[in-house]
# Entry
Amino acid sequence: MIKIKSMHTRLLVDDVEAVSRFYHAHFGLVPRFDDAGGVYQELEGNGIILGIFRRDMMCAAVGITADVPLTPAPEKLSLCFEVDDVDEVVEKLSEAGLKPVSSAADQVNWMLRVAHYRDPAGNLIEINSALPA
# Structure
């Protein structure tokens, strides 16, 4: 068996700058590594490291074309962020002009209160907190 450890989560996007600004402005992630050419950036905060890389460059690296249009569904990825109070975060994001994909709701089977958003690249984001026992 090989030993692995998580390095970071990398999003493959068409607009590195827009997605980086989104996570900085709304989730407080700060630049860790910033490539001024708009190819790759890393942001971090609260134990999260989020890499943001140009999708066309990753496609070229694995030998496929990037001209296939992206569709928002069906979902293949969800970034999940734990917060202290989902409703408080929803209120702050609403004040910033973000509209949820799904409003704050208790998911009893998950034992979580959740709300969902999309970043500028269409990636699904879940904010959640544990329901009281």
